[in-house]
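Action item from last week, closing it out:
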Amino acid sequence: MAADLHFGHFDGQRLRAGSLAAMVKSYSANTPLQFTVEPERPRKSKGQNSYLHVLFTIAANAMNAEGYGDGRPWTKDRVKQLCKLEGLYPAEDRVIPGGEVKAVPLDTRDLDKYETMQTIDKVIGYFAELGIVLPQPNEQLTISE
């Protein structure tokens, strides 16, 4: 069963978590319930997410123009995969069958605001080393696909 996600705020004296309270009250009395509480992660903005994907598109266009690769065209998704392989994304350790621990890059949708900022910086730096200049945040530009 998938867990419902509820947000609240505790000011030191009072807990405000209306949707959680409503969910708890929807169960019959004496129903055993399990709760997990953790600090809210600062969510990335839609602008950050869009900007990261624009960077992938610009990088793909530049790599195609420069003839990088094996002849197959670079797409934003292929550039994103390259960025993950190059360690530009945060990763989490996962134990695979056999007990070995592997670092697995996080999905873009799972990055918080700060992880997204770090990933953007790493992507810009990585492509700068290849001679591909990507725009800094809030730099005005027009791209044609």
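Closing note: The radius of gyration is 21 Å.
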